[in-house]
Specification:
The chain is mostly helical and 642 residues long. The protein has 21 helices and four strands. A hairpin with a 2-residue loop joins strand 1 and strand 2.
Length: 642
């Protein structure tokens, strides 16, 4: 809660503080809350899918509604849950890990989170405004062009708004890590989570523009009658597949690399050892980022690109397994001989290794193009990518939530409930997706809303649905844990896990809004562990206490995002009933007010941008006297706690 002269601020003051904040630690909370909400929403959609498929000939969901649910499940989980939750941890931890007082562009950091939130809301309002998108989360052009109604338009415009926020955040984190490291924090002293964030941020900068272009072309085709993807008018639907997967495969590594970074930190802390093979891990991270752009067409082996293209992309796909294997062996070597503490984050990390390896092995199986012809569009594929995304990314998100919860909130989640949640989630995960490999090999196609009795799929689908229910139970236990912890509000001191090794654990909890009163001096890898070994764990300072320049809060990012949100509705409905639009949109009722809504929304955005440009917002300074008073108060508080 916000503090005003030692007293808790009221709800209105706290709300205004979060609406206008440019502090990376509060923006982390916004990402956590919004990403958590969308994660729950995507989970509910997953439960609907598994309820429909639990028994044969089920009519729980209609065919059309099932298509909408699977589309929104995939889109929500990738764009609105996994990525924002990773941004929550990046915001909470990375500036502290590198000794920075904030990110490079605090204003843009705020703009990024509000663009994501408004884009996510826009996309999900489709449920209430005529139907959600129904062409799958990849929205292949042949399906999306033919889709009636505005569902696909909600997908396209919503992803443009949310994707702009992600691109801004990628630029911001790459700039922050490259330019704002503390003295002594060389590249080869950076923690692995910072390294993986840097590579993921660079991937975002190069991978999101192709998606942006593809979605714009889709908008033009559907709303303005262009012919990029319309085959009978000379277009080519394969263009969409290339543009989507040139984004979509690096996206897998944008998600998994920060997850790898979090697991590296967790293995090191709870094995009480320095990470084995640090240099090899760094180079493996960079190699994975590089190869991530060379494998996109392995999603297109059945398209007919020819044997040469298939062979090249098959080879690249096999090659990318090598740096990933290096990481696996180094994690095992870190654990080997360590003084292991079986905390909830460590249990998730230990469960991650075999789970992710299973997903990786089935990925290499699909790298053989002839074999992929058999696996393609079967439940084998569904099993594979859920083993990678859930067994890798979601395990990391849950481990990171428990691990970094003290830094984000100043409290500790219950270990007892955490371990119960972990065991149930682990069992439910393997119960859900392991059996789907056999379903695929037995011939069950993906994206079918039902199946006939007597095909041999009944028992396996029921087992899979029971596993999904177990995962839902685990998430409910997590929510109970979070609520109990927030209600009890028992504060913890610095380094609550007792063996923090990197700079973020050296700070008091909660960290001051300026992070570091004095710029830290970094003398080696695992700087906190180094200073504990050589002294009392105090991080040396690179200079005396000096005034700190801080940015002012701003309401403008919220208004820019709100303007684009409003303009999105105008753009979407402007094409309704227009003769130049595609038939699926031209047949809808004319909306004469749409142009005015479009203009009004853009006016809000551009006026807000103009105010930002014309206004001299020079921030403010925290004086040396205020900092020294803060340090004295902190020392007294910690002496009292001890």
């Amino acid at each position: 809660m916000a503090q005003v002269k030692g007293k808790k601020a009221g709800f209105g003051a706290v709300l205004w503080d979060y609406l206008t904040t440019v502090d990376h630690k509060k923006i982390a909370i916004l990402y956590l809350i919004a990403g958590g909400f969308f994660f729950a929403l995507g989970g509910i959609e997953a439960m609907l899918i598994r309820a429909q498929l639990a028994i044969p000939n089920n009519d729980f969901l209609s065919a059309g509604l099932f298509n909408e649910v699977i589309t929104m499940h995939g889109t929500t989980m990738i764009f609105l849950a996994a990525m924002p939750l990773l941004f929550a941890f990046m915001n909470a931890v990375v500036p502290l890990q590198i000794g920075a007082r904030d990110v490079a562009f605090p204003f843009l950091n705020s703009l990024g989170v509000w663009l994501f939130i408004f884009g996510g809301i826009f996309l999900n309002l489709s449920w209430f405004l005529g139907g959600a998108p129904d062409a799958g989360w990849t929205s292949y052009a042949s399906l999306s062009i033919a889709s009636p109604g505005h569902g696909i338009d909600f997908y396209a415009v919503g992803l443009q708004i949310a994707g702009a926020g992600t691109l801004i955040s990628g630029i911001n984190f790459a700039t922050t890590i490259i330019t704002m490291r503390a003295p002594g924090m060389t590249y080869m002293r950076m923690p692995l989570f910072t390294w993986t964030t840097l590579v993921a941020a660079i991937l975002i900068v190069f991978a999101f523009p192709p998606l942006t272009i593809g979605v714009f072309l889709m908008i033009f085709d559907r709303m303005f009658g262009s012919n990029f993807f319309i085959v009978e008018a000379g277009g080519n639907t394969i263009i969409w597949e290339h543009l989507f997967w040139i984004f979509g495969h690096p996206e897998v590594y944008i998600l998994i690399l920060p997850a790898f970074g979090m697991f590296s930190e967790i293995f090191s802390v709870f094995s009480r050892k320095r990470l084995f093979g640090y240099s090899a891990m760094v180079f493996a991270t960079v190699l994975i980022g590089f190869f991530g752009f060379m494998v996109w067409a392995h999603h297109m082996f059945t398209v007919g690109l020819g044997p040469t293209a298939n062979a090249i992309f098959a080879l690249a796909t096999m090659a990318i397994a090598v740096p990933t294997g290096i990481k696996i062996f180094n994690w095992i070597a870190t654990i080997w001989g360590g003084s292991i503490e079986f905390t909830t984050p460590m249990l998730y990390a230990l469960a991650f290794i075999p789970s992710f390896v299973m997903g990786g092995v089935t990925g290499i199986m699909q790298a053989a193009a002839p074999a992929d012809y058999q696996y393609h569009d079967s439940y084998f594929i569904v099993a594979h990518f859920h083993y990678v995304i859930v067994g890798g990314v979601v395990f990391a998100l849950l481990a990171g939530l428990h691990f970094y919860w003290p830094i984000m909130t100043g409290t500790m989640l219950s270990e007892k409930l955490g371990k119960l949640e972990m065991v149930i989630f682990f069992i439910g995960f393997h119960c859900t997706f392991l059996i789907q490999h056999w379903l695929g090999l037995w011939g069950m196609p993906r994206r079918v809303f039902t199946y006939l009795d007597g095909q041999g799929y009944n028992a396996a689908n029921m087992i899979s649905s029971i596993g999904a229910a177990l995962m839902a139970v685990a998430v409910i236990i997590l929510l109970i844990n979070i609520i109990k912890t927030l209600v009890k509000n028992e504060k913890v001191g610095r380094d609550p896990w007792g063996d923090g090794r990197t700079l973020e654990w050296s700070l008091p909890i909660p960290a001051p809004y300026y992070n570091f009163a004095q710029t830290p001096l970094i003398r080696g890898i695992d700087v906190l562990a180094l200073e504990k070994e050589e002294g009392d764990g105090t991080i040396p300072s690179a200079g005396p206490v000096e005034p700190i320049h801080m940015p002012n809060n701003s309401f403008i990012p919220f208004m820019i995002s709100l303007g684009l949100f409003i303009a999105g509705f105008g753009a979407l409905y402007f094409a309704s009933g227009k003769p130049w639009a595609i038939d699926a949109v031209a047949d809808l009722p004319v909306r004469p007010w749409a142009l005015y809504v479009l203009i009004a929304g853009l006016a809000i955005t551009f006026i807000s941008m103009g105010v930002r440009s014309w206004k001299d917002d020079l921030g403010y300074y925290i004086t040396k006297e205020e900092l020294e008073a803060d340090l004295r108060e902190l020392e007294a508080r910690e002496r009292g706690a001890n």
